[in-house]
Amino acid sequence: MQKQLFVIALAASVAIPAFAHDEPQKPKPPAGHDHSSTGPAHSGGKETAFGRPGDPAKVDRTIVVEMRDPVEFSPAEIAVITGETVRFVVVNTGKHEHEMVLGTMQELEEHQEMMKRQKDMHHDEPHMAHVAPGKSGVIVWQFTKPGEFYYACLVEDHFDLGMYGKLRVAGAPASQGEHMHHAAGGQHGQEMRGMYGG
Length: 198
Ligand SMILES: [Cu+2]
Hints:
Elements: H1 2-22, E1 52-53, E2 61-68, E3 72-74, E4 77-81, E5 85-92, E6 98-103, H2 105-117, E7 128-131, E8 136-142, E9 147-152, E10 164-170, H3 178-184, H4 186-195
Parallel strand pairs: 2-5, 4-10
Antiparallel strand pairs: 1-8, 2-3, 5-8, 6-7, 6-9, 9-10
Residues 71, 98, 153, 155, 158, 163 line the site of copper (II) ion.
């Protein structure tokens, strides 16, 4: 019962960014808002709000994320334990280019705006993988802070069309009870995938 409620709460919270995203006037942070000096999503080896590049030799878990046409990530929700280093194997099973970019919702939206202004902007950083049709890419990332983060495809208008997923970073394997541990563990993503047909 407890778990059921948790899942429903999760589903409800997933819907909120989608609405916010559709608003033409995005809320701006108040003046003087403490903004990262590095700007949107430039991880280049540094600590970010959503973690830091992981050491490929110290991967805790490998998660396969499938990118499908027209604009879908599967799974669309992933639970990670705080401190965990995840190796994402990002598989593009579509006929269109896709990419997986990690970040906060605000950073991803800013990044998207930047991409619209500079169509030819090409970059590759540790928190992103641009993948051609039928190919796969890898992101190794350590999630150092708890929170709700996202992965989005910033190719063309895919993000606007809803091509993003949610990363829920929570807990610590040793300090949590059986229930929390289970909720934060890798199995949860699989359950979500099943429930929502992702
Ligand atoms: Cu895409």
